[in-house]
Design a protein that fits this description.
By secondary structure, the protein is of the alpha/beta class. It folds into two domains: 124 residues, Enolase-like, domain 1 (2-Layer Sandwich); 283 residues, Enolase-like C-terminal domain (TIM Barrel, Alpha-Beta Barrel), CATH 3.20.20.120. It is 39% helix and 18% strand. The chain contains 13 helices and 16 strands. Strands 5-6-7-11-12-13-14-15 form an eight-stranded mixed barrel, surrounded by six helices. A three-stranded antiparallel sheet has the order 1-2-3. A three-stranded antiparallel sheet has the order 8-9-10. The longest helix has 23 residues. It is globular and about 60 Å long. The structure holds 2-phosphoglycolic acid (PGA) and zinc ion. 2-phosphoglycolic acid binds next to loops.
């Protein structure tokens, strides 16, 4: 008889890739099987994300997570001990409704709750003797196309670029290993181009492992990336994406976007994106407009005809996504489990997206750990796309390397990329 009962839940403080504290949670079952998960953190966060509890004390300049840990070890743990780890939704509901009972999980802290939620999933999978992607979805087979963020701007870098992420999508790769080869060779060419033009400091890394060259605007970085792809010989296999994270350069009072020395209205932003789509093989733009401008988003979506991804717009929140669906805002959901705080709710958001013809792009946070759980989750969702930074630095490569292993495990049943995706149609 397999015993799925939880014996203990234990959280500890570890550090993430920025050297900031975060939680790691162990869920121990009565048969000594453990599920472990670490919690990522954003820097360019959306206003509507679930509440991240930080200590606000002297240690770690206020960023400690001991309060969230105390809540896990002293409040959540006793409530879950003795429960069946495979009853994911029931356990998530205990945390979110019985113990926290706020819309944003501000009593216990969403960082503690998501850590437990993910560790429970891992413990359940381990007890069933299955990889996590299979445990969540018996029909998981799609290896996601990675969106490699090669130039970092916005809040993830110390340069002048307002746009946060300039990325390549190797949609024409044969498989994940080939996608990684394309990305690393392109990055190598990009490094040579940047050093020649801007000097050696241009190839320092930003938060997500992309370069931070002293560039301005949108075209300068895009041109450099296109040239790098061309030099690497992959022009036919690669398309491009942006995460503008535009809320962070939007002025709430004047309702204008401060971009590359100009002050732009929503209409001018849309016109600019249209122009960009004529010049570049852009297939996906994330957070092109302000996080609460559903009307502007609807206009953008009806006019652009490419993938428009809502990150700060939706914050993986089914209620906000529903509002977007009803108003015609965006056509894809950026899926970050810690934005909403439980795995069940995040899965609900993905299901709602798929049912309404929205794509789902699984995403890391800029503050990651070595935990590779999002790779399993992306495969479990058959999402067909994942955004997890440049192909460098351990907190990013852990995800890519996990995908290589999953692809190997799936063998002939693995399919690289979702054949129905809008991304592959351009
Ligand atoms: P964040 O950035 O993790 O710092 O919020 C990622 C993103 O905006 O997609
Ligand atoms: Zn984003």
């Amino acid at each position: 008889m397999i015993n799925f009962k939880i014996q203990s839940v234990h959280a500890r403080e570890i550090i993430d890739c920025r050297g900031l504290p975060t939680l790691e949670v162990d869920v121990l079952l009565e048969n000594n099987i453990t599920g472990r998960a670490a919690v990522p953190a954003g820097r360019s966060t959306g206003t509507h994300e679930a509440f991240e509890l930080r200590d606000g004390e002297k240690r770690y300049h206020g960023m400690g997570v001991r309060k969230a840990i105390k809540n896990v070890n002293e409040i959540i743990s006793p409530a879950l001990v003795g429960k069946d780890a495979t009853c994911q939704r029931e356990l998530d509901n205990i945390m979110r409704q019985d113990l926290d009972n706020t819309p944003d999980k501000s009593v216990l802290g969403a960082n503690g709750i998501i850590g437990v939620s993910l560790a429970v999933a891992r413990a359940g999978a381990a007890a069933c003797g299955m990889p996590l992607y299979r445990y969540i979805n018996n029909h998981a087979y799609v290896i996601p196309v990675p969106l490699f963020n090669l130039i970092n701007g916005g809040k993830h870098a110390s340069g002048d670029l307002e746009i946060q992420e300039f990325a390549i999508f190797p949609t024409g790769a044969q498989n994940i290993s080939h996608a990684l080869q394309i990305a690393t060779e392109t990055m190598d060419e990009l490094a040579k181009i940047l050093v020649k033009k801007y000097g050696k400091f241009a190839i320092n890394y930003g938060d997500e492992g992309g370069f931070v060259p002293p560039m301005k605007g949108i075209k300068e970085p895009l041109d450099a990336i296109v040239e790098a792809v061309d030099r690497a010989g992959y022009s036919d296999l690669v398309v491009y994406g942006l995460d503008c994270a535009s809320t962070h350069f939007y002025d709430l009072e004047t309702k204008l976007y401060h971009l590359a020395g100009e002050k732009l209205t929503c209409e001018r932003m849309i016109a600019m994106y249209k122009e960009l789509c004529k010049t570049y093989k852009l297939v996906s733009i994330e957070d092109a407009l302000y996080e609460d401008d559903f009307e502007g988003w609807a206009q953008l979506t009806s006019e652009l005809g490419i993938q428009l991804v809502g990150d700060d717009l939706f914050t993986t929140n089914p209620a906000r996504l529903l509002k977007g669906i009803q108003s015609g805002a965006a056509n894809a959901l950026l899926w970050k489990v810690n934005q909403i705080g439980t795995l069940s709710e995040a899965l609900d958001a993905a299901e709602l997206a798929f049912k309404n013809g929205y794509a789902v792009q699984v995403s890391e946070r800029s503050g990651e750990t070595e935990d590779d759980i999002i790779s399993d989750l992306a495969v479990a969702l058959n999402a067909g796309q994942i955004k997890t930074g440049a192909p460098v630095r351990g907190e990013r490569t852990s995800k890519y390397n996990r995908l290589i292993r999953i692809e190997e495990e799936l063998g002939d049943s693995a399919v690289y990329g979702d054949p129905n995706s809008r991304l592959l149609r351009r």
